[in-house]
Each structure stands twice: as structure tokens, then as C-alpha cells.
Design brief:
The complex is a heterodimer of chains A (154) and B (509). With 154 residues, chain A is mainly α. Chain A has five helices and no strands. The termini of chain A are far apart. The relative contact order of chain A is 0.10. Chain B is mostly helical and 509 residues long. In chain B, 72% of the residues lie in helices and 1% in strands. Chain B contains 22 helices and two strands. Chain B has helices spanning 2-5, 13-31, 37-44, 53-77, 87-135, 140-157, 162-177, 201-219, 237-246, 248-263, 269-283, 295-307, 314-319, 325-335, 345-348, 350-381, 386-405, 408-426, 431-457, 461-466, 469-490, 498-507, and strands at 179-180, 187-188. In chain B, a hairpin with a 6-residue loop joins strand 1 and strand 2 (187-188). Classes of the chains: A mainly alpha (154), B mainly alpha (509). Chains A and B meet through helix 1, helix 2, helix 3, helix 4 and helix 5 of A and helix 7, helix 8, helix 17, helix 18 and helix 19 of B.
Amino acid sequence: MTELPRNQHILASGIIAVVGATVAYISFTQEPADAFIFPRLISSVFAVLAVWTFIKAVMGRTKVGNGVSAAAMRNMLPGLIVTVIYIFWAAKALGFYTATAIAFFVLLSLYDPAPHGQLRTWIKRVLITAGFMAVMYGLFALLLNVFTPREVFF
Amino acid sequence: MDFLFYLDDVFTPINFGLLLLGTIGGLILGATPGLSPTMAVALLIPFTFQLEPQQGLILLGAAYTSTVAGGAVSAILLKIPGAPANIATTLDGHTMATKGEGAKALQLSFLASAVGGLFGVFLLIFLTPVLAQWALAFGPSHLFWLAILGVTVIGTLDSSSVVKGLLSGCIGLWLATIGFDDIMGAQRFIFHPAVSGGINVIPALIGLFAIPQVITMFTKGRHKAEAEVIEVKRHPIRLAILEVARRKTALAIGTLTGSIIGLIPGVGGQIAGLVAYDQAKKFSKESEKFGTGHSEGVIAAESANNAMVGPSLVPLLTLSIPGSPTAAVLLGGLLIHGIFPGPDLFINYPQVAWTFIDSMLIGQLLMCIFGLYIAGLAASVARVPHAVMAAVVLGLAVFGSYSVQNSMGDVYVMASLGLAMYFLERFGFSAAPLVLGLILGPIAEANFIQGSMIANATVGVGSYFFTGWLNWLLIVIVLASVSYSVWMEIAQRRYTTKDDAVAKEEALP
């Protein structure tokens, strides 16, 4: 069995334990009490299991979960940043279709293994993005009649 | 024989068209590495909004069946299982392909899938009404325990760690309580306006299943897929049919193993394929040939992973307990049309229920026919680079989540849950119990409150929830599943779990 990243497990299970304890605290202190009967039941088990997992992680007795390697983190970080900006800001601020087209093209450029230096590569990426956007527009705007946010741009 | 009465409905132009669309689309999606059946079905749900309930279910059911079978194409031709359910297929299927028997392996896999799938759907047809009749006698206490059973069984059997599985279930149950309380109208855990109306199941499902896959594709970086599609030479279908008929033992083992595993909530197709492969090898007279391109390996694995599809829907349609993550997604597809499965489904919506089941029966045959003809095309799709796939899935997830209620809040919920789930999975938590908690939470709470009210007016809470043979049967099953999993974990003799399956996939040379 490979060595599991102990510190990562402590951090992850610590966060879950804090969430569990907070949920339990809110469940037992909020009013009206009748509305929190079921959450109290759930949060009690949640908190106990979360603390148990945290203690196991601190003691180094975690058996499953390989954590996130530095290489994986390096690879995913640019994509994660683009995703977060796209979903939590650009989609609403720029307009759904504009933000999606930009995010799609940027993600494609970031992760496409084709060489960046060739004009052909960029033309291919633009065409794939355009094709994808055409399909999305056809499906959601024309077929399903979904009205998406149209802010600064389309 | 109600299923025969509604069989005609499958052949109306729209229904049959959707069945074809779901089958062909599912085969292509299934062949695409990284697109699991659950994720494919979750991404399809937004497209069913404007359809009639049975039409939506036909599309989702066909996609479910075909994605499982379609995964065999990339497993055989590329050595990349399209879905975890096809890991066992890779072991002999790809070796056959390298020997120039790719077409034969594909034919065997689709024929075995059809036989296993048909058996599984017949099991669904004959078991479901019996169980549904029995379930009509269930009261609030039984439904409460049943919901808890659904979460604990999946939490313990689907996860590598019992504690983490149960913890995932608790997180799901807690998420289900967010929003306004149904009885008192009180606000609960509303920490952001996006969750003021509670967490909508569809965006949550899309986020929990699609976003971790997108991030996993990101982690591969600018990686160039080196897999080469092996050329498929012609092979007479007649010989493949004779081969399947000759390998009856492997076919029977695969079909029965898959059907039984499908009936157990929480034990998915990836396990069915591997267990069936191991059993077929054990009982085979040519066990030494397994792993060297032996047809029995392909037949056992593929018949098993499709045989589990039908039975995995039995608990969903009779007890409203989804037996697998994909069944949970199908439940989401029913809920958006205001239909809640359970014992009443066959009384209140017989046309929806039986047309859906009948479509799965016909879908198995279509999957076999089209699978044999479009395998080559599906294999080409399997070569789509990760970069394109990640961007496409992300775009579909965002648009699909938004279209549920035309709400950006749903998109934020989808993304937040998806990001959190990726990291939770890296630390040994599983999405399935969390999803089950989220879906079964409202059932558990409503029946707990209703049961408490009855109990307070009659025998008291203790007596109401802890007496009666049915309550005890359900409690014993909950305790037994937890105890069994704890014992297996302590003894380190845990049966093949999803982690083992993933480990086997990663170990493929």
C-alpha cells in the first residue's frame, strides 16, 4: 500500500469535522426546535463520524484516499482558475454564451497537447469552439427555449 | 403481463425515435473514456424537461443501457475502459483485438450484453410488481427505515471505508435539510441566497458526477493520448452467435452474477464485471486461457455488467430507494416530472412505468444491433482529446444546471458541490452515498415527522419506530450491512470494491 499524505488527510478531515460540529451546533441552538428535530438526529451522527475521521487522520490510521499530488495540483490549477472565473463571475457578468465561448477556448488551449506554435492548431481550436457553441445555442436557445443571462455581451 | 399491454407505446414515432437516439448516443458516449454512465445520464436530464415523463425516461433508460455496453468498444479497441463496468472486458477483449480478433470480441461483447441485459430486464419485469404490491403495506416508520437503509447500505458497500461512506451519507442527508422546513416554514442552514430554496437535486447530481471528472481530466495536463485504435477486420456474425451459444457456462455465470449484484443496492456494474470474470475463470475448463484473449472472459464480463442494469432499478421502482448512482439520477429524471416512484407508481402511472420498462427491453435489442454496426465510429469518438472532453462536459454541466430553473444559483450549487466532491473523492469519500442522502433525506424526514406525530398520539415514538417485524427486519438489515462491512474492513478481506476496480484499471499495462 502506498504512503497516504497524512497532512492532507488531517486538513481535509479537519475541515469536515468543523463543518460537522457547526451543523450540530446550529441544529441544537436554532429555533423553532420542532423544525430542527431531524437535523439534530443527522448532525449528531455527522459530527461523531467527522470527529472520528479526524482523530484517525491525526493518528495516521487513515487507510483510503491518495490525496492530491503536487503534479496533479499543478496541472489542474489553471483549469480550476478558469472554471471558477467562468462560473462565478464571467457567465453572469459577460453573458452566458460569450463567457462559455471564452472559457471553452481557453481550456482547450491550456490542455490541448497540440503544439501552440502552429497556425493550424489555433484554427482547429477556434473551429472546435465555434462548433460547440453552435450546438449549445441550437440545443438550449432554439430547442429548449432556455433564456440565459445576456449582460455585457451575448 | 402488464408489460405486454404497454409494449405498443414504445413503438410510437416519438418514443421509438427517442429510444434510437438514446441507444446510439449512449453507445458513443459510453465508448468515450471518462464519461461514466451516471454522468452521461445526469447530463441528459435537462434535455428531458420538455418531454412527456415516459419519453424522458425512455431516453434516459436507453442511454443508461447503451453507455454500459458502449464502454466495451474502447475497452477492446483502445484498452481504455469506457466505464468502470468494462474493466474486466479489457483483460481478454483487448488481447483478442491485438490478435486480429477485434471484430469478434466486439460481436461477443454486444451479444453477451444483450443476453445479460434481457435477462436483467425480465427480472425487473417480474420482480417489480410483486415487490411493489408488498411495499403498499409500508407505513411511515417503515419508509423512514427504508430511506436510512438506502443510505447506509450504499454508504457501507460502495465505499472503501465504512466510516467515510456513512459520513458521506450524513453529508447528503444534511444537504437535503437546507432551505425551508416543510411543516414549520422555518429557515434551515441558509448560508447563501443560492440555497434559499433548498438544493435542487438535478444541478447537485450534475455537479457531483460531472465536475470531478472534468477536474480529473485537468489533472492529466497537456497529455497526449497514446492509445491507438486497433483496426477491425470483418468477422461473420453467425460465428459469433455460435461462439456465445457454445460458451453457455460463462454466459450463465455472467448473467446470474450481474443480476444478483444488480439487486443489491450500492454494488455497481464495475464490481459485477470483475466478480463474474473471476467466477467464470474459476468454473471454466480452460481457466488458463483467461487473460490471453479468451472469449469466455469477454462474454462473462459483458453479460454481467448489462445484466445488472435491470435489477438495479427494482429497489427504485418499488421502494423508491435507488440501488445505484445511475438509478439515483433516473430518480431525479422522474422527480422533475412530479412523479415519485414507489409502490404507487404502478397504480397511478402504469403507462409511464411499463412503457419505460418495455423500452429497456427493446433497447437491449437495439443496443446489440447498433453496437455491432457503429462500433468503429464509437471507437473514433473515444480518441477525442481530454481537453475537448473536459471543456464540453463543463459547458454542458453549466448550461444543464442553469436550464433546470433558469437560475444562476443552481449553477453555483452545481460547481461548489462538484469542486468539493472532487477533493472528497481524493480523500476516500464516495459520491454515491452523498447523492442517496440528498435524494432520500426528504423521504426520511417527512416519514420521521409523520411517524412521530402518529406515535405521539398513539403508542409513543419508541414503540412506533422499534416494534413490528417489518421495522425490525429493516433495522437488522441496516445493522447487518454496517457490521459486515466493518468486519470485512477490520479483517482486510473486503470484497472487490470500487477502489479495487480503479486500482485494477490503473494497473493495466
